[in-house]
Amino acid sequence: MASNPDFVQYVADQCAAAGDIMTRKMFGDYGIYCHGKIFGLICDDKLYIKPTEAGRKLLRTVELRPPYQGAKDYFYISDVDDHEWLSALVTATCKELPVPKKR
Known about the structure:
Elements: H1 5-14, E1 21-26, E2 29-34, E3 37-43, E4 46-49, H2 53-58, E5 64-65, E6 74-77, H3 83-96
Protein name: TfoX/Sxy family protein
Domain TfoX N-terminal: 13-94
Pfam families: TfoX_N
């Protein structure tokens, strides 16, 4: 099942305080980016964020799940309604992620 575009936009809006948020459709679901860095995936109307130590410290409950079969585990984020916390989590996560390589 693919993600609902309304849900994808809602999650992007909830993360907006972290910076320039963009989503891109990929393989039937979506990648979510902040300032050009992919920090997570939205699959089957669920948010998954790349695991980092800074992100782990901000999580209320650490739950690791693969976003799709065969994927590495990501942090599963069940609460996407708290925009301040979600934006802080995205900001902290992106600080630890490498700058994307230019194509």
